[in-house]
Amino acid sequence: MSTVAFVAMPTADAEALWNGGIDAYGHRPETIISDGPGHPCRHCLRNIDAGEELFVFAYRPFPELQPYAETGPIFLHKIPCDRYVAAEVLPLILTTSPDFIVRGYGENNRIIYGTGAVTPVGDIRAYAAELLRREGIAYVHVRSASNNCYQCRIDRT
Q1: Which domain of life is it from (predicted)?
Q2: Which residues 6+ apart lie within 8 Å of 108 measured at CB?
Q3: Is residue 5 in some structural domain?
Q4: Is 128 within a domain?
Q5: What is the pLDDT of residues 8-24, one digit of tens each?
Q6: CA–CA distances in Å: residue 59 to residues 65, 73, 116, 125
C-alpha cells in the first residue's frame, strides 16, 4: 500500500484570517464560542475545546474559481495554533464521526467522477492510498459525510 500524508490547511491561509483577512466570500470570519466537540480546527486538525473562541468562515481549498471549487464553512482556532505535522497519523478530527466522504481530484483541481465514497474512519487511509495509485488522481479530500464540509487533504508521499 502506498503511504499517504494528511495535510492541514496551509498556515498562510490561517495567518491571513488571524491577521484580519477575509474569507472566500470576501467577509471577515465570524467569532463564536465552542460548545465542545463538533468544531474541528482545519489548521491543527484538533477539536476546539468548549469555551474557546473560534472563527467560522467560508473556505475554498482550491487555487482558483472554477465549477468544481467547492466552498463551504469551516472552523479555525481564533488564537493561532500550530499546524498539524504528524502527516502519516490519522488526525484527531477524523475520529469524531464514524465515516467521511473521501474523494479524488485531478491536477486540474476537478473532481474525478466515481471516486467519492462515504468511507468508514478505519478505511480512510486504505481508500485514499487506492485512489492515489490511480492514473489521473493528484490528491484526495476528506469531507464530512453529513454536511460535505472540508476536513483535510491527503497527498501521496
Answers
A1: Bacteria
A2: none
A3: no
A4: yes
A5: 999 999 999 999 999 99
A6: 12, 6, 20, 24
